[in-house]
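Q: Got one fold?
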Amino acid sequence: MFVWRNDDVGNEIGAAVLRAAERGVRVRIKKDRGAIMYERIEMNRRSFFDSGLSLGTRLKFAAIRPTFPDTRVRDDRDGALGEAIRNHPRVTFQWVDHTHTKYYIIDERIMITGSVNVEDRHLQYHDYMVEIEGEEAIRRFRDRDCGKASFDAGRDLDFLLNHRSEAPPRFEIKKQLLRCIAEAQHAIYVEMA
């Protein structure tokens, strides 16, 4: 997950995740450390998961804050729910760097992926997410994600991935996007934030 803000939406999803863990569901959260900058300098300036930022990092964010639009929203939220999730015995929590990925996998049979962050301000955006169902599709994603399988343009469904952390880095998305554009025969729609 990229942005997971400590606001209404963040807490609603967090409460649902905690309830799932309490009823015996194993939860694995991979949270991008870099998103903390956006969580801390926009809106209510609170991350759902407190990372214990160093003084140097806090000073860096304070220096960057004036370059962002003033979106300040005041509330009295604390980090108790995020801490309860991180400390739950059925939750595995991992800080990661350089991911902008946003996906949920439920019971290794449903994947929801797309552009939405977990924050109230996305209630105002026009966002799309895609639901992919089937254990074979999720196995294929897992195999692609860990490098066990190569991209296959002939499949009805396959996953394109960029992995900066691999050696050598794997950058597949741009190459395949350019291929698709080159092969387009009727229409191309592009919508970007």
In short: Residues 54 and 60 are 10 Å apart (CA to CA). The beta strands are 27-32, 91-96, 103-106, 110-114, 129-133, 162-163, 170-171.
